[in-house]
Design brief:
The protein has 119 residues and is mostly helical. It has helices spanning 14-17, 22-31, 50-59, 61-74.
């Protein structure tokens, strides 16, 4: 959410205004047997994490193809060095998008930090 840069335009967020979160909307959709859509973002957003890239790839089709093509197109757009959409700095179609759990890493405490270790 952000406010308009134009003084005579006011953006509205009806669901926010009635205190509905994305989670609340997902629950409502599931309760009504409707599909929960992915969050909205630019297809080639460099802030996607591996999970989001996995979802785009799993859905397949034109979205994944366009993301891979965008990744290729930016490769040598700025010198020195190459640009990549994925933080691993590898071509999107070559990135290992498995989760640590998929690779055998056990989850400890469901990643809940209570500060006990003192770090």
């Amino acid at each position: 959410m952000r406010h308009s840069d134009v003084k005579y335009i006011a953006h509205r967020w009806p669901l926010i205004e009635i205190s509905k979160s994305r989670h609340d909307c997902a629950v409502w959709l599931k309760e009504h047997a409707l599909e929960v859509p992915p969050r909205s973002s630019c297809l080639f957003c460099p802030y996607h994490d591996s999970l989001e890239w996995r979802d785009i790839r799993a859905r397949g089709g034109l979205d994944w193809e366009r993301a891979v093509e965008a990744d290729r197109l930016i490769r040598n757009a700025r010198l020195p060095g190459q640009l990549f959409l994925h933080p691993s700095r590898a071509p999107l179609e070559a990135v290992d998008l498995r989760t640590p759990e998929d690779m055998g890493q056990m989850r400890l405490w469901d990643e809940e930090c209570t500060g006990i270790c003192g770090v």
